[in-house]
Amino acid sequence: MTEIQYNFAQNHQSIGDVAHNINAIQEVRTDIDNVFTTLLTVYEGDGATALNQAHQKVSAMLDDALNDVSNTQKFAQDQQDAMQSLDRANAAAF
């Protein structure tokens, strides 16, 4: 029989690392927005239109990725909490 072992402290640390990295990505996203904003002051006409469209596309892709990672991180935290609760309930049964 195979045993399942949960390392709650390590799981908590990993979930915290993901949350920290989400914040770091948000900061980089702000930097990317600033680059596009600066570039838009240089371009005019079709170039500015194309650059603006690229900015919108990149922003949408980053939003989607950040939402996916944030949702996954929240789900992992919820599962960690549920597993710890189950572990406590099982331990109390002894």
Observed structural traits:
rod-shaped, mainly alpha, 86% helix, Helix Hairpins, plasmid, 0% strand
Mind explaining what this structure looks like?
This protein is mainly alpha-helical and 94 residues long. The protein has one domain: Helix Hairpins, CATH 1.10.287. It is rod-shaped, with a radius of gyration of 21 Å. The mean pLDDT is 92.
What is the string of helix and strand elements?
HH
Quick one: biggest sheet? Answer: none
What is the helix tally?
2
Structural class: mainly alpha
CATH architecture classification: Orthogonal Bundle
What portion of the residues fall into strands of 2 or more residues? under 5%
How far do the termini sit from each other? Answer: 21 Å
Tell me the number of structural domains.
1
Percent helix range? over 70%
Oligomer category = single chain
Estimated radius of gyration: 21 Å
How is this fold's topology laid out?
Elements: H1 8-40, H2 45-92
Helix pairs in contact: 1-2
In short:
The chain contains two helices and no strands. It is mainly α.
